[in-house]
Amino acid sequence: METRYGHPAFDALADAFHVLTESGPLPGSGDRYRIGAVTPAFRSQEAVERFIESLMVDAPGQYRSLSHARVGDPWEFMRFSGGHGIVGIAPEGDWSTVCPGIRGFQFMTRFGETGRDVPTVLEVVGPDGPAATLGVGGAIGIDHHGLDHWHRYDLADGASAIFGRKSPFRDWDSGDPFFEVSTETTFAIFSEADLTGPWTKPLSIVPLFVTRQDAEVGMAELVASRLAMAEVHRRSHGGDPGAFGSVRSYQVREVTDIQMRIPQYQRMVPGAIVVINPDANRSNSGIAGYGRQKGGAEWWERETSHTRSWLRTAAGVWKIDRHNQVKVVARERRWSGRDTLFWNGAGRFQLASLPHTLQPEPLAGVRVPPDLPDDAINDLGRAVVATGARLDQPPTAPVEEMFVFVYAHSPGHDQRQ
User: Fold this and answer.
1) Would you tell me how many other CB atoms lie within 10 Å of the CB of residue 305?
2) 3-state SS, residue 336
3) Under 8 Å between Cβ of 86 and 32
């Protein structure tokens, strides 16, 4: 079938409608696409008008004006949206007639174009992964592995900041508990996190979560990862590596006073840094540290000899008081030099670490239900090793799971699916 843009999904996007605020495309947050904010696209004018009406009712006064327009040229719309900090497009409603199982459109660059002010390649993601790419001259046949996500956090984090006006995280209010994955004597450690990038030591990320359910998923992934590594060890060296068996003693525990807990993490793991919601969208994650205020809350230093606890998110810097009470002290929108928040990505490839093939870290492409039986988890570990599955690929998911949108309502975070 002949298409205008090389793929039916791009043709449908050209005919779709998007929402405009007074400052640009409407930003939404989806945890399946962690890089930043995405904007919705609707198949019909009636659908977008109903959405705008409901948003005006749900969030009165949040936006001075809301309107809609046709997307038009998909590549040009990507560039326009990228200029406003948007990193992807999410199909809203039924797109099954044009692209069954479509998961979204993501903004990319060729490797040689990394760091550009706007993305250069639009990629549609279908049920089995990336399906087609669109460049300035039309459809282009570039494999996904020849592309890189558009990582201009200095632009994209500004769009994500809108979601933290009152609370730094969704489904969490000041004073609520956090949740950690720990045993009686130790706690879970990840090797890396998107927010920290290359500025942390390997195996120094302490993950915290804002809901018990998220912590249970993180714990299940940790167990599956350790068991997969145990299988590698068994095949390489023989025997039953008992050191890996201890992962089954991990539990989800409440942290009711993060201010007191952070120094304990750092005493046990020097240089440890706490990342809250490490697998979430950047609008719903943050970095917590223990140290002294610097330059009017510009950032914190990680020396435990000082007595302040700080939280940094895309929305700003927050002071952490006793019993998880937080208060915003600065709406920082500049790079600290110690993380990827508002980083322009300069030198990203030169700073990238080598793959940790035998690190006991969570497997990025594995999603394990918290109630999965032990035998099934063991089978999963063996299957991952036996098949050589790519662990750096996100799991396939229908669009409603990939992009669960949250639009900025006042006050704080209100979820809209």
Assistant:
1) 8
2) coil
3) no
